[in-house]
Amino acid sequence: MTETWRTVPGYEGAYEVSDLGRIRSIRRTVTQRVTNVRQDIPERILRANPNAKGYLCVALHLRGTQRTHTVSAVVAAAFLGPRPFGHYVCHSNGNKTDNRVANLRYDTPASNTADSFKHGVMLFGETMPQSKLTLAQVMAIRGDDRPNSEIAAEYGCTPSNVGHIKRGKSWRRAIALAREAAVPMTLSVRSERGIQKMRAAIKEAGQ
């Protein structure tokens, strides 16, 4: 497979990035700011390390200043051009460590969030391990006029939980995505099969 290299924007003469998501330091000679000593920098592939969110990052140096960048941002800047205002660098296949240019695109925060749910990297609603209710039960609670304590006793949750559901303070995202994707509210997505059905419906709705 042919690997194409381009200069990292803002680091001309110091670093290059490839369409496969690798970043390398260019062979060069630099002068240390404090000691004024000249140092030869060899060409080498930089090691990328994941940050707290799982995105691969590299530390780039220029004129004595070090800055950390996500690999995806560096690849996108070199091959996709400047990032449009208000857009994110998105991984189309949901793999945060796959920084091939073919897997990257600029898109809106809403689209990025939809991707996260579609690929199963964002959990909420009944896909959360600690959830005690299903989407169908939540919809039933929202339309139930009985006292919160009575509803809570039936569904095995607290009156406070019921109140939050009725006021729209919880489960909002799951309900909104389910409605947008035309997922039947009677569908339980707690099982793995149900989760896959919901993701498939959301993916289809987005096409």
Would you mind describing this structure in some detail?
- Residues 122-129 and 181-192 have low confidence and may be disordered.
- Helix 4 crosses helix 5.
- A 4-stranded antiparallel β-sheet has the order 1-2-3-6, with helices on one face. It has a 3-stranded antiparallel β-sheet with strand order 7-8-9. Strands 4-5 form a two-stranded antiparallel ribbon.
- The longest helix has 15 residues, at 192-206.
- It folds into 2 domains: 5-116, Alpha-Beta Complex (Homing Intron 3 (I-Ppo) Encoded Endonuclease, Chain A), CATH 3.90.75; 123-206, no CATH class.
- A hairpin with a 6-residue loop joins strand 4 (28-31) and strand 5.
- With 207 residues, the protein is an alpha+beta fold.
- The protein is 32% helix and 21% strand.
- The chain has helices at 71-79, 109-118, 135-142, 148-155, 159-166, 172-180, 192-206, and strands at residues 5-7, 15-18, 23-25, 28-31, 38-41, 44-45, 49-50, 56-62, 65-70, 88-91, 104-107.
